[in-house]
Amino acid sequence: MRKSVFLILLCCIIVFLFSCTQQGDKGPTGPNGEDIAILQFQTGRYPSDAYDGVTDAYLESGFYADTNYGSYASFFVGRYVFGLHNGRERFVLKFDLSELQNQYIKVKKAEIILYCNSGTPSSVTMTVTPYEITKVWEESEVTWNSSETSVAWTTAGGDYVATPAGSTIYIDKVNEYKIFNINASIVQKWIDNPDNNFGLIFISDTENLSGNWWVGFASKDNTNINYRPRLVIYYTLK
């Protein structure tokens, strides 16, 4: 009897020691044991229903290159052809993170989640890529030609860093969420130096086609709060 008990205890000790030597599953940015927390930003919802720090608009070249689209429930990317519309479409998006400055936050990973709510043709396929904007723009004034009223972009269609600011997303379905991974170093810069946060511009590989080839996403003005653009930050403390 004592021998059986001894063997059972010995087995338990061996199992315990073995389990302690195993590395845990990796979390979203590193191994378990790293104290990772999450912050989210979304108009009217995160971090509280009082947050109103998202600005967005879409830009359209051609006949409407001087028209502002900063208050629509959706923004668009691609090529749009209808009546006098015959141009490229891009959208700009910014999250105000100034409240995080001097909070000792170290960004490990960041995602922007957008709800794709429309597209043409019904079999639309395209890629969309985010780029870091390098110039101040105003939501209620920005157009294809200008970042603000009477202030032209250096290059029509937006001034941005040529290197992508995050992952390129392949789109072949609508009415679902799309997740863009954004470079952690860019979001870190937005936090540490809010004056250098000019947001992102999203560009598709179909904007130079001759016919309709576009998708739309819910903007921060969309009546469905769940569909509005959301920034998710995974972080540790410095």
Describe this structure in words.
This protein is mainly beta and about 240 residues long. It has one domain (about 30-235). Helices cover about 10% and strands about 40% of the residues. The chain contains two helices and 14 strands. It has helices at about 1-20, 185-190; strands at about 35-40, 55-60, 75-80, 85-95, 105-120, 125-135, 145-150, 150, 160-165, 170, 175-180, 200-205, 215-220, 230-235. Strands 1, 2, 3, 4, 5, 6, 9, 10, 11, 12, 13 and 14 form a twelve-stranded antiparallel beta sheet that branches. It has a two-stranded antiparallel ribbon with strand order 7-8.
Largest sheet: 12 strands, antiparallel
As a percent range, the share of strand residues is: 35-45%
**How many whole angstroms does the radius of gyration measure?**
23 Å
Say how many strands there are.
14
**SSE topology string:** HEEEEEEEEEEEHEEE
Quick take:
The chain has 238 residues and is mostly beta strands.
Descriptive tags:
238 residues, 12-stranded antiparallel beta sheet, two-stranded antiparallel ribbon, 2 helices, 14 strands, 12% helix, 40% strand, globular, disordered N terminus
